[in-house]
């Protein structure tokens, strides 16, 4: 067995429990729970903000908050055979998503008023806020997803892919439900940092260097890479289209 947020459940439908005789991503079970709650909360905030931008009602905002906060974990649990997924079975995680959605719904007016008083502030732009929250959630869930997959003995390749999917899953489902092309398919480096972070966790496990510190380093690297990609507009290579060829020929 290895370091992980949670040990895979031993009975169908059981909630994974912390491993007491092995190193874990955080030092105590309570801290592990806080990490889960924070990850769900920040991703759910991004979903709720997108819902407000798309003009959805309260129910729609809560749905997007739930999907963004728990979608990646649900996909991970389905792949690993953990049923029912924690996204529909743990009331604390559900509550975190609901609180995030309600907070955005109730405080959005105050946010807009503050933004109007500071028109030059970067934080006033909701798109920047969504991406920052995305980066935080992406980092936490890419690493934790890989750890949970390794605990379930999914193998190195599967753990890397599941870690990446856990990180991007919530944002992808959020964008699809809000009627836009997912950012993972079109903007900056999104999936690449998640997959790289998950791969780093797998590598650390294989060489016996997976500890609390190195796991948090992986989280920090994913977050930093995503933020830098947004700031510098770094993108994965794209296919050369006809318009691009024409522009190059004219140059």
Can you lay out the helices and strands and say which pair or pack?
Elements: H1 29-53, H2 58-80, H3 86-89, H4 91-117, H5 126-151, H6 156-177, H7 191-206, H8 212-232, H9 242-250
Helix pairs in contact: 1-2, 1-4, 1-5, 1-6, 2-4, 2-5, 2-6, 5-6, 5-7, 5-8, 6-7, 7-8
Summarize the structure.
The chain is mostly helical and 251 residues long. The protein is 69% helix and 0% strand.
Describe the structure.
This protein has one domain. The protein has 251 residues and is an all-alpha fold. Helix 1 (29-53) crosses helix 2 (58-80) and helix 1 packs parallel to helix 6 (156-177). It has helices at 29-53, 58-80, 86-89, 91-117, 126-151, 156-177, 191-206, 212-232, 242-250.
Key features of this structure:
single chain, 9 helices, 251 residues, 0% strand, globular, mainly alpha
Radius of gyration, in Å, reads 19 Å
Distance between the first and last residues' Cα: 58 Å
User: Helical segment tally?
Assistant: 9
Give the number of domains: 1
Give the overall shape: globular
What is the number of beta strands?
Answer: 0
Helix content: 55-70%
Mean pLDDT across the residues is: 79
């Amino acid at each position: 067995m290895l370091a992980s947020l949670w040990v895979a459940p031993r009975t169908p439908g059981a909630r994974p429990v912390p491993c007491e005789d092995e190193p874990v991503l955080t030092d105590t079970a309570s801290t592990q729970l806080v990490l889960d709650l924070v990850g769900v909360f920040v991703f759910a905030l991004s979903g709720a903000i997108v819902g407000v931008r798309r003009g959805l009602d309260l129910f729609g905002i809560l749905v997007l908050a739930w999907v963004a906060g728990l979608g990646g974990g649900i996909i991970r649990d389905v792949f690993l055979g953990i049923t029912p997924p924690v996204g529909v079975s743990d009331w604390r995680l559900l509550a975190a998503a609901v609180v995030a959605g309600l907070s955005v719904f109730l405080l959005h007016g105050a946010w807009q008023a503050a933004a109007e008083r500071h028109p030059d502030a970067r934080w006033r732009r909701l798109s920047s806020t969504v991406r920052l929250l995305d980066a935080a959630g992406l980092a936490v869930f890419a690493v934790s997803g890989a750890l949970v997959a390794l605990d379930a003995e999914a193998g190195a390749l599967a753990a890397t892919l599941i870690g990446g999917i856990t990180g991007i899953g919530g944002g992808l489902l959020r964008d699809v439900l809000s009627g836009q092309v997912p950012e993972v398919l079109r903007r900056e480096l999104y999936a690449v940092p998640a997959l790289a972070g998950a791969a780093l966790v797998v590598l650390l496990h294989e060489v016996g260097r997976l500890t609390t510190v190195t796991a948090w380093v992986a989280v920090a690297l994913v977050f930093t890479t995503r933020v830098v990609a947004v700031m510098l507009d770094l993108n994965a290579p794209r296919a050369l289209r006809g318009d691009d060829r024409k522009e190059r020929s004219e140059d």
